[in-house]
Write the structure tokens for this entry.
Amino acid sequence: MSTGSRNPWEAWARSVPPLACASARQPRPDPAATATRLAQAGLAGQYAVYEGEGGVWHFAAGSAVSVTADATGITARAAGRSWTSRTDGEPLTAFADALAALRDAGGGNRRFYGWAAFELAHLLHADPGPAGDRPLLHALVPEVEVTLTGEETVVRAVDEAWVRKVADLLAEPGAERTVPDEPTPERAEGVIAAGATAYGRAVSRTVEDIRAGLLEKAVVSRKVPLPAGLRPDFPATYLAGRRANTPARSYLLDLGGYRAAGFSPETVLEVGEDGRVSTQPLAGTRALGADPEENERLRTELLSDPKEIHEHAVSVRLAWEEMAAVCRPDSVVAEEFMAVRRRGSVQHLASRVTGSLRPGAGPWDAFAALFPAITATGVSKRAALRALARHEEGPRGLYGGAVFRGDTAGALDAALVLRTLIGAGNEAWLRAGAGVTAQSSPEREIEETCEKLRSVAPYLRLSEG
């Protein structure tokens, strides 16, 4: 996704105000709760909370500056104006060009927060038809950003008025809010069970495709709508779920038409300003509960199950190949292979593949190669995408896509959207999938989706309305 010397988005980039004012304050005792409170404050039309590596939380808010791209067009907004252009079926290239213009416009390192919908994958790797006409990429350039670490709280904003507004919120004692009741175990299990029978049939059809030689693996998912008449409280769900989960990344957002509260088990990619790139495929699953002896038994079973080991190995192999396409020769290594990682209600086989970007390649080149995560699609990626278009009902949207935080110095951190409550318009839903191979049975894959849904469903905070 590299760009040329002239960028058509220069006028837009010059209209984007930098975060010129900064203030450092004492660390917060509970950064997750602080970030959630800022999200609840309604500071701007859009916001994102992103928990990065090492327990660092970021809160960003704004409404004036954004970039949105679909299969045919891209729109950038700033200072009350809009700039539009065609994407000609390459929205990621246009999106990267717009963000590169921010880098070239000066004003220091600019940060952005956003998401990529799963259907972008069809334009990158398969057939353009299933990409549809909905937005595929969206980014917010914030007017205010708060970074919460164990050492300090840093507020950056476009002006002093924003700094004071956030400082006043941080100075307030924790306000009492009416929090919807948590669901009963019976209601949570009722949510989880929705659509299981139809999902089993989709698994069976996918196994037939695999045995016919069309592909090696597909991650088939099912959508689980929330019960009619119940409205989710996304911030309350996020905080309750984060207390109980052990994610690689977490996020809470109301951004570009989507609302989400999620606890991602893995990253699609992590790119540093030095060009080091990393991806973290997780594939192979067993439940994780309150009984240590049972957890250890399931862990041992996971490490010796031929189906799970095969599923994981082919995912790591493809991750290696995708990394090699954008990295320096001989720089790609598996720093970790088939460890077991605990992620909320499940435990996974986990590996990490790293490399160094080749000259001329940037973070969006790596994103184009690795998106969507192998563990949300399958092997080969092209064949798996075609199988998913045949066997899944409707588009995935945000599920299986990415929520990301990046900057114009070259860093990009993208979380895989799994274990997430998602909302758009008047709808809200969960979604979960399982890796289907030739050895799969519908019963086991249904069970696996239920295990994963238990990372979110018990922590839903719902009210009537």
